[in-house]
Structures are given as C-alpha cells and as structure tokens.
Design a protein that fits this description.
Elements: E1 5-10, H1 16-27, E2 30-33, H2 34-47, E3 51-52, E4 55-56, H3 58-64, E5 70-75, E6 80-85, E7 88-89, H4 97-107, H5 110-124, E8 129-133, H6 136-140, E9 146-151, H7 154-164, H8 170-186, E10 199-202, H9 208-224
Parallel strand pairs: 1-8, 1-9, 2-8, 9-10
Antiparallel strand pairs: 3-4, 5-6, 6-7
Bound molecules: 2'-deoxycytidine-5'-monophosphate.
C-alpha cells in the first residue's frame, strides 16, 4: 500500500487531534501532535523563568533551545501518545489553561518554529505520518498527498473544550479560543492559512464518527487514487 503524509490544519480545539489519532490508528501511521511540541516549549519557558507574566526573555529561550527535548511515547494503557519534555511526562500539564494562555507567544517565535519544523519534517521523511497543527500543509509538508483544514464554530469548540477543562468558565475558554485564532492567523511566522489544495471540513454539526468517515473517504482517494 502506498504511504502518504496527511496534513491536518485548523483552528484551536476543533477536533483535529481526535481525527488525526483515528486516521493514524486506521492506517498504522505515526501520529504527531505539533501543538503539543509548542506547548512543551512553553512549559519549559514558564518553569525556567524564561517567560514571566506573559513576557519572554527571547535571547534566553533561543539559547535554551538545544536543551529542550520534546518526544512522544505511546501509552498502551491510555491508548494515547504522550508528550515528554526532557524525559518527563508532561502530557497533562501542557493541556492546562495556563499553557493555553501563554503558548501563542512562544509559537510565534521564528527560532522556535524553525527548530520544531525541522524535527517535524525529519519525522515525515519516510511518509506514513498524520500530523496536526497550523502550518503543516503550508510549511512542514507543502507536498503532502492529503491536506485537510478543519474548523467549527467558536461556540461549539468552547462547549467541547469546557467538558475537558472542568475548572474554567465557558466564557474564559471562548475568549481564549478567539484570541488564539487571532494570534495564529495574524502572526508573521507561518500563520494559519487555508491552502488552495486543502479540503475543508466544518465539523460544527458532525459527530466524531461522521467526521472520521468523511476524512477516511478523502484518505482512501489519496492513497488508492
Ligand atoms: O493545537 P494546540 O492548541 O495544542 O496548539 C498550541 C499552540 O501552538 C497554539 O497557540 C497554536 C500553536 N501551533 C502552531 O503555531 N503551529 C503548529 N503547527 C501547531 C500549534
């Protein structure tokens, strides 16, 4: 069977990673959550006082980039791929609102992006990768055989996210999503864009299964022609 790279981009909290995980399982492909990589860098910066009160010491962060090792390990019990920062499992910590509120400032930095993109491209060299993020179809894999752009209304995304983040209010979550959408789409380095060759899926009114079946159809076409 021909192996392809599947690039999944889209807005924050729109179910990209749910879909990416389903597709990677279906095809036994490697799954890479690139947002988790930026989140792990953000955690490192916050924990090492490189980022304080929303302000980053950019020179210190750039100096530290070689000391930041982000990796993934599959947890059989939880059936998920977990994120490790310098060998420590940070999967839960990087999902907190604290990180969500700070990560855009980290992910807009050119040097951080360059390092992450080169790691991501190396992973995709042999194909058979499903990667989700913001710049996968535009920068990481501009020649990906399949590019999907996922979105949903901000209200629906906030509702779904609030089911996971029990201690945050719906209004705070919605505001955070809106500001991240804005930051992602307007930043200078690798902004979130809809590529001409991407297939758009708005899943506001789709179940997880409906979205999966729709995407699977596109994958089958990309793989088998
Ligand atoms: O998908 P996420 O919410 O976990 O992403 C975390 C942050 O990283 C978010 O602000 C967008 C940014 N990001 C990015 O700039 N490029 C990517 N390829 C993935 C995420």
């Amino acid at each position: 069977m021909k192996k392809i790279n599947i690039a999944i981009d889209g807005h924050s909290s729109c179910g990209k990673s749910t879909l990416a995980k389903q597709l990677s399982k279906h095809y036994a492909y490697i799954y890479v959550d690139t947002g988790a990589m930026y989140r792990a860098v953000c955690l490192y910066a916050l924990k090492n006082d490189i980022m304080k009160d929303g302000i980053i010491d950019e020179a210190a962060l750039i100096d530290s980039l070689d000391n930041i090792n982000v990796s993934f390990n599959y947890n059989d019990e939880r059936s998920i791929s977990e994120t490790f920062l310098n060998g420590v499992n940070v999967e839960n910590e990087i999902r907190s609102l604290w990180i969500s509120e700070n990560v855009s400032k980290i992910s807009k930095l050119k040097e951080v992006r360059q390092k992450m993109v080169s790691i991501q491209q190396a992973i995709g060299e042999n194909k058979g990768v499903v990667m989700d993020g913001r710049d996968i179809g535009s920068v990481v894999f501009p020649n990906a055989e399949l590019k999907l752009f996922i979105t949903a209304s901000v209200e629906e995304r906030a509702r779904r996210r609030s089911l996971e983040l029990k201690d945050a209010s719906l209004e705070d979550i919605k505001k955070n999503l809106q500001s991240r959408d804005y930051d992602d789409s307007t930043r200078e380095e690798n902004p979130l864009v809809i590529m001409d060759d991407a297939i758009q899926i708005d899943n506001t009114n789709l179940s997880i299964e409906e979205q999966f079946n729709l995407a699977l159809n596109y994958c089958q076409k990309a793989i088998y022609g």
